[in-house]
Structure formats: C-alpha cells, structure tokens
Amino acid sequence: MAGLTETGDKLNEFMPSEDGRKPVVVVDNVHVEYRVHAAGRKAPGTGRSLLNRTRGLRTVHALKGVSFMAYENESIGVIGSNGSGKSTLMRALVGLTPPSQGAVYAASRPNMLGVGAALIPELSGEKNIMLGGLALGFGKAEIDELRDDIVAFAELEEFIDLPMRTYSSGMQARLKFAIAASKQHEILIVDEALAVGDQRFRQRSEARIREIRENAGTVFLVSHSMKSILDTCSRVIWINKGVLQMDGEPKEVVAAYRDSRK
Ligand SMILES: Nc1ncnc2c1ncn2[C@@H]1O[C@H](COP(=O)(O)OP(=O)(O)O)[C@@H](O)[C@H]1O
Ligand SMILES: [Mg+2]
C-alpha cells in the first residue's frame, strides 16, 4: 500500500523507549502535499467565469517533515488548530494519504476509528452492525456475539431496527463508535469522534479507549477537547502549520498550546 510500510523488520532498526517498550509506529520525515485546482474567479459584473485564465494547480504543503515514534501502550493525543494537518497525519498513518516525501512504518496496519464508509443509511442499525463488523474483519458468528454489547454501548436499544438514516447525527456517531470500538485494535486512530456525543457517552468512550490501550494497544486521539486529551492520553503531540511543534507530557504540551492561543 502506498505510503505505509507494514513491517516488523524495519521497526527493529529503531530503538525501544527508555523503559524498553517496542516502537509500533515510526513516522520518518513525512511530507504531504495536496495538489488542488484553484477555483476561477468571476469577472466582475459579467458573471462570466475567469476560470480558464486563473485556473492553476496549487500545492498545499499540509505536512512539512513530521517525525516521531509511537510505542506500545501509548495513548497519544494530537492537538493543533484547524487546518494544522492533524487529519492529514492520521490519514498518512493508515495509508490513505501517501507522503510526498518520507515514510511511515507500522508494526501492523493502523485502524481509523470510523466504519462510516461501510455503513448504509437505508439499512437498520442492526444490519449496519453486521456490515461494520464485517468491514472490521469479524466473522458473522463473532458479530452476533458482540451485537448486544454494541447496541448497549451505543444506547440504541429502542431504535436498532429502524433505518440508520432516521438517526440523529449523535446517534449515528455513537453507533459508529460502538461498532469500531468493539474490536481490540493494535493501533487505533480516533479523529474527532468524541466531539459528537453527550458527556456520558464521551466518558464511556474515553474509558473504552483507555481499555484498548491497556490491552497493549496504541491509540492516537485527535480532539479539540483538552479535557478528553488530558483524561485519556499519556503523551501529546502538537501539530502546528504542518510541523511538529511539541511532543511530550500532556499537561506541558496542552499548557503551551493554550498559551499560544491567548
Ligand atoms: N483532500 C485535500 N485536498 C486538498 N487540501 C487538503 C485536503 N485535506 C486537507 N487539506 C488541506 O491541508 C491542510 C491540513 O488539513 P487537515 O489535515 O484537515 O488539518 P486538521 O485536521 O488539523 O484541521 C489544510 O490547509 C487543508 O485545507
Ligand atoms: Mg481534522
């Protein structure tokens, strides 16, 4: 797969953490450039498009040489203002966005939380649990077994036989989170998924993220909620305008980020 090298061998070349944990993800000088067609402007007063004259390929340099290593059992918060490159970095980790320079090495394929693409709004919540479960690699029998827990976690008992399109966005988000989090992921990426639910759901989601991490997973959590980050993460990286601004103790990085926004 472009942009993601799934290999344990390569990772052996990298040093373990100070307390002896193995690196599971190595991000090595990653650059991502998007090529975007700049929209044409209308000629004033004419409504005619100046597209042909002003159109051109623009390059957005979204990540500019980001490097870090993630170890087993880490829960890494990813913070930064809008447009700083957090989602781009997460997509590079799962191999969806190939780096234009540099590389990502991972011990196993990271999963992005969100089975959204696999779900079908016309189908019931029930059927979507089956679809999402299959997309995560579960067999039918396993999904049948997980079903009740997923429904309970999503708090959708009364609605599970209704088409998903009738759900509010919060209900849909809960269902997606519940499906994705039913699996013990080795490397899990959660990009802004906690922003939608109410406080109780957020707390249970955070607890589930901690559980995944305790069971030897590595979790990346992108969030604008500094509370979620502080409650959940053992380490925080701050991405600013495409560069790694700071990487360290959650309290210190969050404080520095907050200071920068005053
Ligand atoms: N698919 C894309 N095509 C073109 N530009 C993109 C695309 N995705 C993101 N960008 C641009 O890359 C930069 C980083 O975006 P993103 O990674 O979404 O930041 P964040 O998640 O931190 O808000 C922004 O300037 C954004 O406009
Ligand atoms: Mg984003």
UniProtKB/TrEMBL annotation:
Task: Quote the SUPFAM superfamilies the UniProt record gives.
Answer: P-loop containing nucleoside triphosphate hydrolases
Q: Where is the ABC transporter domain?
A: 48-262
Q: What is this protein called?
A: ATP-binding cassette domain-containing protein
Q: Which UniProt keywords apply?
A: ATP-binding, Nucleotide-binding, Transport
The protein's GO terms of the molecular function aspect are:
ATP binding
Pfam families (alphabetical) = ABC_tran
Q: Which residues form a coiled coil?
A: none
Name the source's superkingdom.
Bacteria
Q: Which family does it belong to?
A: Belongs to the ABC transporter superfamily.
